[in-house]
Structures are given as C-alpha cells and as structure tokens.
C-alpha cells in the first residue's frame, strides 16, 4: 500500500520541484530595479489591488439570456468583499424580471473556487440584480457562472474575468 502512494506522489513532488526551480530562475534573471515576476501559484498579498479586466457581455449557453456585470469596486482589491450588479436580458434585449439564480466562481488554472459564496440578494428592477458577497483571493483568470431560472427558462451564463 505504501509503495502505491509513493508512485502517486512522485509526479506531484517532481512538478512542485520544477515550479520552484522555474521561480528561482525567473527571480535570478530579473534586473535589480524590477520586482521579481509573480509565480502563478504564489499567494497574493491581502491588500493587493488588481484591475478588473474587460468583462465582455456574455450570452448564455442555450442563448436564452444575455448579461453584463458591473463591480462596486474599481480597482478590485484582493480579499475584499464587494458587490456586483448583473444586468440580465432576453436574447432579444428585453429586461429579465423575477429571475432566480445560483452563482459559482472558479479559477480553472488553479482548480479552486472563490473563497465566498456570492448570492443574488435583490431584484433592482429593469433586469438588474444585486449580487453580494463577491471576493477574489488572487489575480488571474476566473470564471463566474450564473445558473438562471426565469419562468420556464433555465440556462447558464458564464463570465470569463481576468484580474490583472
């Protein structure tokens, strides 16, 4: 049994060693006046500010809805709770009223989710919905999926967000 685990852990240990070696090489080659590049797996400082990259309006998987998001923070601050406004329309541009939704975010490159569980807390009218409890723990590429139900329609709306 122990032998099996050793063979399973060996690729993980080798991968971690390669990442560490790459980070050391990058740091060693950086000019003294330039900060060392951030390695993708390195945690961000608690108060780091990042720019919310362009978040293009999205169309849902089955093309029933279109949506756009606006953050209450600009710039977005890592590890700080903030809100979004989701503007939701039908495929032909009519505001969607009385929708319900669940929200899930993930960072695919790191295989982890958001540190919070954002919720739609209020219908603001005109197709706008208040999303509270949004927080990111690091910069990079994120995907935030809204599973939306409006009347008899159910569809997923996915936003690709880059925090730089």
Topology pattern, helix = H, strand = E: HEEEEEEEEEEE
Distance between the termini: 44 Å
Uncertain runs with pLDDT below 50, 5 residues or more?
A: 1-49
CATH class of the largest domain: Mainly Beta
- Estimate the mean pLDDT confidence: 77
- Summing up helix and strand content along with how strands pair, one would put the structural category as alpha+beta
The helix count comes to: 1
CATH topology of the largest domain: Immunoglobulin-like
Count of folded domains: 2
Shape: globular
* Strand residue content: 35-45%
Instruction: Tell me the name of the CATH homologous superfamily of the largest domain.
Output: Macroglobulin (MG2) domain
How is the biggest beta sheet arranged? 5 strands, antiparallel
The portion of residues assigned to helices is 10-25%
Rg on CA atoms, Å: 20 Å
Q: What is the count of β-strands?
A: 11
Strand order across the biggest sheet? 2-3-5-9-8
Task: Report the CATH architecture of the largest domain.
Answer: Sandwich
Features:
alpha+beta, Immunoglobulin-like, 1 helix, four-stranded antiparallel beta sheet, 2 domains, five-stranded antiparallel beta sheet, 164 residues, disordered N terminus
């Amino acid at each position: 049994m122990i032998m099996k685990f050793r063979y399973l852990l060996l690729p993980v240990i080798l991968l971690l060693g390669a990442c560490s070696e790459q980070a050391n090489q990058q740091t060693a080659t950086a000019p003294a006046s330039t900060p060392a590049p951030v390695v993708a797996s390195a945690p961000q400082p608690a108060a780091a500010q990042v720019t919310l990259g362009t978040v293009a309006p999205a169309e849902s998987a089955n093309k029933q809805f279109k949506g756009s998001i606006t953050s209450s923070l600009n710039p977005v601050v890592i590890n700080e709770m903030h809100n979004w406004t989701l503007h939701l329309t039908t495929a032909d541009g009519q505001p969607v009223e009385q929708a319900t939704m669940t929200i899930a975010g993930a960072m695919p490159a790191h295989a982890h989710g958001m540190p919070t569980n954002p919720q739609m807390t209020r219908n603001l009218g005109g197709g706008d919905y208040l999303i509270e409890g949004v927080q990111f723990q690091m910069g990079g590429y994120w995907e935030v999926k809204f599973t939306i139900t409006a009347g008899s329609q159910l569809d997923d709306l996915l936003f690709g967000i880059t925090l730089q």
